[in-house]
Design a protein that fits this description.
By secondary structure, this protein is α/β, with parallel strands linked by helices. The protein is built from 14 helices and six strands. The protein is globular and about 55 Å long.
């Protein structure tokens, strides 16, 4: 690349929650003239700014952001929809001469961008509603038995307590007439050419990460997380919707219902966060071996190294 050309290669930043990846994305965006594109499956929801640690209005005023808080909680946002939205956001940023910086903790979203998704057709909404209602009425074990009777292959791949994926398999089978296992053998086209991206993965010591996450949830409580959960509860949404499964939502709704104390809800939410971090780190270690590791604990020195790397 000549000195007169603008480098618009997308920068991908993945990492577990509370790792500092959003602050890193902001620092890079300000230095390279970037647009930050969300790759977190919960930060898309409009009603969950505090509980999902979405960028603040001040952050959004500093640099352009895309795909944050634009989906109502009544909707179930999918990886397939993300691929389409992210492709548009990335192309839009580049058309404006801005460098896309895709940041988040949802590993599947990065996999979808770089490898493509199986081309499963859109599921009929009546079918989706039916199986969600069945799951709420019958429970996970019964739904797994239902799947085993209809699709032995998919049932064998899923744990009996994994309601979300069991329901997904049943929806696909009924709506398309084909097993999800069959669809998964087909590959869609990737949005990005991996060789034309800069890929960074943020690593933080586990104990430090847990400490940061605990402190962040305490800060969320001071900022009004309980009221945010109450407002979501008052919408009377299907409990199976993704927004209702955001960390902290169920425990805090329990507080408003008089089922548990605030202290118990905070402890439950912090424990849930630690479990989520463990799952994220497992994904990162398995799928992002070739990505460049960044230690945000040493942000100043890391930034110097990152800028040297991305400007190569």
């Amino acid at each position: 690349m000549s000195s007169t050309e603008t480098d618009l290669r997308p920068i991908l930043i993945a990492g577990p929650t509370a790792s500092g990846k959003s602050a890193l994305a902001m620092a890079i965006a300000e230095q390279v003239g970037g647009t930050i594109v969300n790759a977190d499956s919960m930060q898309v929801y409009r009603e969950l700014r505090i509980l999902t640690a979405r960028p603040t209005p001040a952050d959004e005023a500093r640099v352009p952001h895309a795909l944050y808080g634009f989906v109502p909680a009544q909707e179930a946002y999918s990886a397939g929809r993300f691929v389409r939205d992210a492709a548009e956001a990335i192309a839009g940023a580049q058309a404006q001469g801005r460098r896309p910086i895709v940041v988040g903790g949802t590993g599947l979203y990065f996999k979808a961008l770089l490898e493509g998704l199986s081309p499963v057709p859109e599921i009929d909404e009546d079918v989706r509603a039916h199986w969600r209602a069945e799951a709420a009425r019958r429970g996970a074990e019964a739904m797994h038995a239902e799947l085993a009777a209809r699709d032995e292959v998919m049932a064998g791949r899923l744990q009996s307590a994994d309601t979300q994926r069991i329901v997904r398999a049943l929806e696909v089978l009924e709506s398309t007439g084909r097993s999800l296992a069959e669809w998964q053998t087909l590959k869609g086209a990737p949005v990005l050419n991996e060789a034309e991206t800069v890929r960074l993965v943020v690593r933080v010591d586990r104990a430090e990460l847990h400490s940061r996450a605990d402190a962040r949830f305490a800060a969320m409580m001071r900022e009004g997380a309980a009221d945010e959960a109450k407002a979501l509860s008052e919408m009377q949404l299907d409990a199976g919707l993704p927004a209702m499964r955001a960390i902290g939502v169920r425990p805090l709704i329990g507080v408003w219902r008089g089922e548990i104390s605030v202290e118990e809800a905070v402890a439950a939410s912090q424990a849930e966060t630690r479990q989520y971090i463990k799952r994220q780190e497992t994904w990162l270690k398995s799928h992002m071996i070739s990505w460049v590791t960044v230690q945000t604990k040493y942000m100043e020195s890391s930034l110097r190294e990152i800028f040297a790397f991305i400007h190569r």
